[in-house]
Amino acid sequence: MAKSGNNGQAPEHEKSTAARILVINDTQEILDAFRDILEEEGYEALLYSYTFTNVQDIEQLKPDLIILDYLFGTEKSGWQTLQLLKMHRSTAQIPVIVCTAATREVREIEGYLSAHDIQLVAKPFDIDDLLDAVKRALVATTYSAKLMLDRAKAPGEQDGAE
């Protein structure tokens, strides 16, 4: 895929089908690497060098997936953003991948991550491992959405069959 100066946005013809991936990391070089990796795979990369304190800002971006660093400088801002996401109904179902070098700190919240199906990709990461995690998260979300639709349809279909 040819890269152009599109400021992290997918070409116009791909916007409706490309998964929107929000990447939150405080290092510009890491954000640039994520943009290159994700856009090469056909995803739309939304890059932010700060964490969000208002869930409505994330809602407006409508990401299909969030890749989140755990530490910002010495602050656990990624952890705070993750809690914010999971405490709001509108963002709780967005899959999250925590991508961090702070593996010791993340061990403290492993149970929480597992309970919420949040994947962990340790830095430095292998590009294929990251892309596999992205695909798993997006497939799991698509599968969950299909199950919810099927369950919503099932009662109406049963009523008509009686």
Question: Which helices and strands occur, and which strands form pairs?
Answer:
Blueprint: E1 20-24, H1 28-40, E2 44-48, H2 55-61, E3 65-68, H3 77-87, H4 89-92, E4 96-100, H5 103-107, H6 110-115, E5 119-122, H7 127-161
Parallel strand pairs: 1-2, 1-3, 3-4, 4-5
Question: What keywords describe this structure?
Answer:
globular; alpha/beta; 5 strands; about 160 residues; Rossmann fold; 5-stranded parallel β-sheet; disordered C terminus
Separation, N- and C-terminal Cα atoms: 53 Å
Number of strands: 5
- In which order are the strands of the major sheet placed? 2-1-3-4-5
Largest sheet, if any? Answer: 5 strands, parallel
The SS-based structural class is alpha/beta
Query: What would you say the CATH architecture is?
Result: 3-Layer(aba) Sandwich
Low-confidence stretches: 1-16, 158-162
Q: Would you list the SSEs in sequence order as H and E? A: EHEHEHHEHHEH
Helix coverage percent: 40-55%
